[in-house]
Amino acid sequence: MFFRDIIGQDKAKQRLINEAQEGKIPHARLFCGPEGTGKLPLAIAYARYLSCLNPGKDDACGTCPNCVKYNRLAHPDLHFVFPVIKKKGKDAVSDDFIAEWRELCSNQPYFNMDTWLKEMGAENQQALIYVKESDEITRKLSLKSSQGGKKIMIIWLPEKMNADCSNKLLKLLEEPAEQTVFLLVSEEPDKLLPTILSRTQRFFLPGIEDEKIGEELSKQFGIDKKESISIAHRCEGSWLKALEAIHLNEDRELFFELFVSLMRLAYQRKIREMKQWSEALAAMGRERQKSFLHYAQRMLRENFIYNFRDPNLNRMDETEKNFATRFAPYINEGNVIDIMNEISEAQKHIEQNVNARMVFFDFSLKMIVLLIQK
Questions:
Q1: Which contiguous run of DSSP H or E holds residue 180?
Q2: Cα–Cα distance between 110 and 39 in angstroms, integer?
Q3: How many domains does the chain have?
Q4: Strands (E) located in 187-324
Q5: What CATH number is associated with residue 363?
Q6: C-alpha dist (Å) from residue 187 to 34, 158, 243
Q7: Pair (232, 152) in one structural domain
Q8: Which of 195, 229, 247 is the last residue of a domain?
Q9: Do residues 254 and 243 share a domain?
Q10: Has residue 283 got a pLDDT over 70?
């Protein structure tokens, strides 16, 4: 990754470049902000710039020996730590999955935990950073820089560290090895130890500008300007959501129909049809069920906001807006939180492999009562 590969975030890139040129490089930086804003790609581009032998005014040179090694993310002084699954029932370390990690970062640098779990073949396993990893971090950073420059440790999702690993990392942050730079990339920084937070310089990355997302959508997928801006506006500054919008258009239409059908059936109290609705959803795969519930949450939030009559606040397409003109009045201060909580409960049960028919039928029955709350 180069700075030029990062979508938008011009102010953030310029700030990092300026600090590097001025030699004001903190030994530990925490990249945080909403998902899909480019935190990990930016951390990698920043690491490349710090390692480049001939850095330019706006980016790394791309041709020096260090940059050539960065093309494969295989520079000997660049180290990665990230959540992993157990191997053969035993705790694993990041290097056990480094080939998969490098391939994903190179081919699809904007990704989330779900994508990484699929890349590892996790199935239903949970990914963590185990205490065994802290010994690997210590060992790697105890070695001298092979190229005479900085040793850079990028830790993706440090909040996934177990307690013992976090405590060992704290000691390294308190007494960092010479020429060592830690780049932590977090989705939930509040879950980190306060002592770790206090020893890092927080670098917040805001949502990507709609215009930049629109430009990238047009460039990559050939979408006309009007449609690309419309999609970008609905994505809340997240490139991941923009990609989902592109690849899940058919599912979005299906999810919209399912959402509208449920709300109408619940309002009309058609129990038999609601049972059939639940069975139709239960017949889908678990990932699509989770995607539908995520879509339902978004639609509830958008319909609640629609009541404020400010078009700039809404991120719906025309079909969804037309439905909102009639449905939004039923989503209000008296029920929006309760409905959101019920969807979250359904999401949790689907994750736990609870019988999907029961989950969705129970949820649909509760909607009968919640829709009439004022």
A1: strand 180-186
A2: 9
A3: 3
A4: 201-204
A5: 1.20.272
A6: 7, 9, 19
A7: no
A8: 247
A9: no
A10: yes
Q: How far apart are CA 186 and CA 157, in angstroms?
A: 5
Question: Among all chains, which residue has been given the structure tokens 């949790």?
Answer: 348
Query: Are residues 156 and 80 part of one domain?
Result: yes
Q: Give the H or E element holding residue 155.
A: strand 151-156
Q: Are 43 and 31 in contact (CB under 8 A)?
A: yes
Stated length of the chain: 374
Element (H, E) at 213: helix 210-221
When pLDDT is cut at 50, 70 and 90, the band that residue 248 belongs to is low
- Could you give the CA distance from residue 132 to residue 182 in angstroms, rounded to a whole number? 18
- Of 247, 276, 304, the position where a domain reaches its end is 247
Closest residue by Cα to residue 243 from 225, 259, 220, 266: 220
Give mean pLDDT, residues 78-85. 94
Residue with the larger pLDDT of the pair 331 and 145: 331
Q: Are 253 and 118 members of one domain?
A: no
**pLDDT, tens digit, 9 for 90 and up, residues 102-132:** 999 999 999 999 899 989 988 778 899 998 8
Given pLDDT bands bounded at 50, 70 and 90, which one contains residue 252? Answer: confident
Residues 236 and 321 in one domain: no
* Average pLDDT for 200-229: 89
Check whether 146 has a pLDDT greater than 80. no
- Look at strands 201-204 and 78-81 and give their pairing: unpaired
Kindly indicate the confidence band of residue 245, based on its pLDDT and cuts at 50, 70 and 90: confident
From the list 133, 150, 149, 201, the residue with the least C-alpha distance to 173 is 201
Does 13 lie in the same domain as 117? Answer: yes
Range of the domain at 276: 248-370
> What pLDDT is attached to residue 205?
95
